[in-house]
Amino acid sequence: MQTPTIAGSAQPRLARGVRLQTDSKTGNSVLLFPEGVLELNETAQEIVTRCDGRTVGEIIQALAQEYDADPQMLDADVRDTLVDLHRCKLIELT
Amino acid sequence: MTSPRPYALLAEITYRCPLHCPYCSNPTQVRSDQELTTGEWTRVIREAAALGVLQIGFSGGEPLARPDLPDLVCAAREANLYTNLITSGIAMDDDRVHALRDAGLDSVQLSFQSDNAVLADEIADARVHQRKLDAAAKIREAGIRLSLNFVIHRRNIDRLPQMIALAESLQAERVELANVQFYGWAFLNRAALLPTREQVIRAREIATAAQARLTGKIDIFYVLPDYYENRPKPCLNGWGQRYLTVNPIGDVLPCPTASSAIPDLRFENVRAHALDWIWRESESFNRFRGTEWMPEPCQSCPQREIDFGGCRCQAALLTGNAANTDPVCDLSPNRATVDAVLREVHSLGHHAPDWTYRVNPTAFPTLERVT
Questions:
Q1: pLDDT of residue B370
Q2: Which of A5, A20, A2, A1 is nearest to A84 (CA)?
Q3: Do the Cβ atoms of B54 and A30 come within 8 Å?
Q4: pLDDT at position B364, please?
Q5: Alpha-carbon radius of gyration of chain B
Q6: What residues in B contact A16, CB-CB < 8 Å?
Q7: Which of B138, B155, B199, B277 would be a feasible disulfide site paired with B195, CB 3.0-4.6 Å?
Q8: Minimal Cα–Cα distance from A34 to chain B, Å?
């Protein structure tokens, strides 16, 4: 089975009613939605904070610049994370 | 032992409700104490946030019956909580929805009795269905996340496809198709509400097919009818582990139905104790925490940290002892109590008995009754 992927031109945003905030007990970033709490790892946090209207391609470029990394190395990680979040309806794509 | 951390507070701010649904999980009898004031709720909300709570659900009764609801939402947002309103939608006029949006309300869960107005109004025993449709539109216009909740029972379970279609047409983000669970008024009305096995099998097929068809579009959450299962639900993810409820008069409960289902357990009140102490130290929160309290067959069961022995309230209601294994489990020596109810429902065929409508514990302006 082929893994679903996301176009580089897609613009991911937090879905309606989903909030990103810092958990004051742990200092970690969490996504809050009516049915639960999702604790984000560092990679996911870096991606989600950039889901602000930028395209997937732009997010990858920004992260590559920030971490002085090869965009092609980041590509799969970013897309996989976004696919997971989209499947959980925590982000929407336009 | 370090206490676990609570993640969510269910704030039952009033027992008053303009509807009379026979499946209501509220207690059938309540103490006639004064409801907590705005100031008392604000303190509870701050104490909950300090304990680690990240989410609050405003529920009831009908939370819109309290004019201070927007103030409470505001207090919750100031405490950095995610705010969810669990409502029938009656009294959700333009002013209310705007006040709630401006207070920072994150999400609304709107209850429906059916997709069909005549049946819905009969179940609620009030003319409410059209008002709910209007409320859904207002919530949608205000840009607040919307989920629909249908409580499923014998009289409406055959309309699942139409209910799902209604959720689609109202552009809800999510729809919950929740088979009735038997507490409070619903326990009283079990024989009238429990669907037949054939109905349950059909409903599951419909829900599963709709989940596949609507993936990525609308989230469909189907709550199993646990009497028809052979393993119990992992109630609350364990007693006193993640959730706490504060009821309208300030009693703090590990589970919203515990006060009526487990009368021999004494619950502490926020007017007498700090929430932190109640969560960590009180007898009621520690009684069924962890696994040490478990009798056999739970104590040696490999599933004991998966389902936690099921539901304490159900054990109390069906066996008279809250420490027993939930009798839904087919390893329970009391499973026969559940099977007897299922046999009764089967023998009734199409002749379900009448139900008893929920009544309010205190005088409350009611809508015109249908029957």
A1: 52
A2: A5
A3: yes
A4: 44
A5: 20
A6: 143-145, 173
A7: B199
A8: 6
Alpha carbons B136 and B149: distance in angstroms, whole number: 12
- The model's pLDDT over B13-38, given as tens digits with 9 standing for 90+, comes to 999 999 999 999 999 888 778 999 99
- Residue B297 preceded by cis peptide, ω within 30: yes
Neighbours of B245 (CB within 10 A): 22
Neighbouring CB atoms inside 10 A of B15's CB total: 22
Q: Is B282 helix (H, G, I), strand (E, B) or coil?
A: coil
Interface test mutation site (partner A, options B81, B107, B140, B220, max chain A beta carbons within 10 A): B107
* Averaged pLDDT, groups of 10, chain B, 371 residues long: 88 96 92 91 98 97 96 98 97 96 98 98 97 98 97 96 97 96 94 94 97 90 94 95 97 95 94 98 96 96 96 96 97 97 88 90 51 47
DSSP state of A12: E
CB contacts, 8 Å: B106 with chain A: 17, 19, 32, 34
Q: Which of B13, B17, B20, B28 is nearest to B365 (CA)?
A: B17
Angle at A82 between CA A78 and CA A88, to 5 degrees: 155
Say what the pLDDT of residue B366 is: 45
Provide the whole-model pTM. 0.94
Taking any CB pair shorter than 8 Å as contact, residues of chain B touching chain A are: 5, 7, 52, 54-55, 57, 80, 82, 84, 106-107, 109, 143-145, 147, 173-174, 216, 219, 221
pLDDT in tens, B233-257: 999 999 999 999 999 999 999 999 9
